[in-house]
Amino acid sequence: MTTTTPLPPKTERPPAVRRRFAAARPAAGFALAALVLFAGAPLALSDFRLGLLAKYLCTAMVAVGICLAWGRGGLLTLGQGVFFGLGGYAMAMHLKIADAGPGNLPDFMQLYGSATELPWWWRPFANPVFAVAATVLLPMAVAAILGSFIFRRRVKGAYFAILSQALAAAFAIWLVGQQATTGGTNGLTDIQGFFGYDLDDPVNQRMVYFVIAAVLLLLIALARQLLHSRYGELLVAVRDSEERVRFLGYDPANVKLVAYVVAAGMAGLAGALFVPAVGIISPALVGIVPSIELVIGAAVGGRASLTGAVLGAIGVAWAKTALSEEFPAGWTYFQGLLFIVALAFLPGGLASLAAVVKRRRAGRRLAGDTA
Questions:
Q1: Three-state secondary structure string covering 99-149
Q2: Helix orientation angle between 47-66 and 80-100, rounded to the nearest 10 degrees
Q3: pLDDT at 278
Q4: Closest among 182, 197, 205 to 89, alpha carbons compared
Q5: Neighbour tally for 306: CB within 10 Å
Q6: What span, in angstroms and rounded, lies between the C-alpha atoms of 358 and 371?
Q7: Contact present, 122 and 97 (Cβ < 8 Å)
Q8: CA-to-CA distance for 188 and 204, rounded, in angstroms?
Q9: 276-322 pLDDT, tens per residue?
Q10: pLDDT tens digit string along 233-270?
Q11: Nearest to 84 by CA among 315, 235, 284, 296
């Protein structure tokens, strides 16, 4: 008769070791992301595919802000296309002025307008410092003004989502109606240079990609710092129980306003970098549908997880490019169905899938033990 020696029980790591592992995990994640973005992708992808990836990374920047505002703050922002467009148009205006040369009007103004000089509100964008600052500060200023009115009147939930969506529609309609100064339906197109660099040169296009990748990693680091700070805990508290936070002496309107303004600044910066990556900004990129697409990416990946939101945004943007070519009429319906399924059956997105499976296994094990 043979006897089996029982296995020794698993020993848990000391708390100090667990803390060191937890602290090292984000650094390892950033190192892996940097390795993929700065070494793996340029080596594995052609110039065309790398340009597409740069476009997808811009949508991921918006998803970082959505993760902050919606995932942690409960603010369903369906109007991020407005802030994306403000940053994009601010950058495109400067680049069009630079392409035209000193004393010349941008090409579309000569074609559609009768003006002999730049409109007064275009002139400050001739200064590169002003233009770069405006790509972030202008969206943040607009968000601060709108958010102050909305949050202080305690507008939230579906009403806030509808208002933000209406803002995106109004912005797109205004852009279309100003053909002589914004390019109308066509937008600002045929952008050829980026602060003195020729965008037709593949080397310069790769430079733009590297800039976009670096900015994305910086925004993720900034958002993570906010989410793990005292403010991040307060933002979650406002989302879960706004009245209790108010009772404790904090103003929930100010807490939500900060998240909304920061998310707007991130979207504006994404729009600014989208312009040299793609060479165009138009009303079709800033209206209701693009705003919803940005939210869908974050929802599918996991709106409460920075990694999930970023990967979800990249994945949905890639799927739009790949599948819309095969099914141009059906992609929009598939996208809407994807959003509904994600919210109905997996509210935490794909990032929560492992936790859901783990909970179900634990539930089955507990049910088996009690039986």
A1: HHCCCCCCHHHHHHCCCCCCCCCCHHHHCHHHHHHHHHHHHHHHHHHHHHH
A2: 140
A3: 94
A4: 182
A5: 26
A6: 20
A7: yes
A8: 20
A9: 999 999 999 998 888 988 898 898 888 888 999 999 999 989 888 88
A10: 999 999 988 889 888 888 999 999 999 999 999 999 99
A11: 284
Structure tokens at 157: 């939930």
Tens of pLDDT, residues 59-116: 999 999 999 999 999 999 889 999 999 999 999 999 999 998 887 888 888 877 666 7
Paired strand residues for 197: 194
**φ/ψ of residue 198, rounded to 5:** -80, 120
CB burial of 48-65 (b: ≥16 within 10 Å; e: otherwise) equals: eebbbbbbbbbbbbbbbb
Which H, E and C letters describe the chain, residue by residue?
CCCCCCCCCCCCCCHHHHHHHHHHHHHHHHHHHHHHHHHHHHHHCCHHHHHHHHHHHHHHHHHHHHHHHHHHCCCCCCCHHHHHHHHHHHHHHHHHHHHHCCCCCCHHHHHHCCCCCCCCCCHHHHCHHHHHHHHHHHHHHHHHHHHHHHHHCCCCCHHHHHHHHHHHHHHHHHHHHCHHHHCCCCCECCCCEECCEECCCHHHHHHHHHHHHHHHHHHHHHHHHHHCCHHHHHHHHHHHCHHHHHHCCCCHHHHHHHHHHHHHHHHHHHHHHHHHHHCCECHHHCCHHHHHHHHHHHHHHCCCCHHHHHHHHHHHHHHHHHHHHHCCCCHHHHHHHHHHHHHHHCCCCHHHHHHHHHHHHHHHHHHHHHC
pLDDT, tens digit (0-9, with 9 covering 90-100), for 129-139: 999 999 999 99
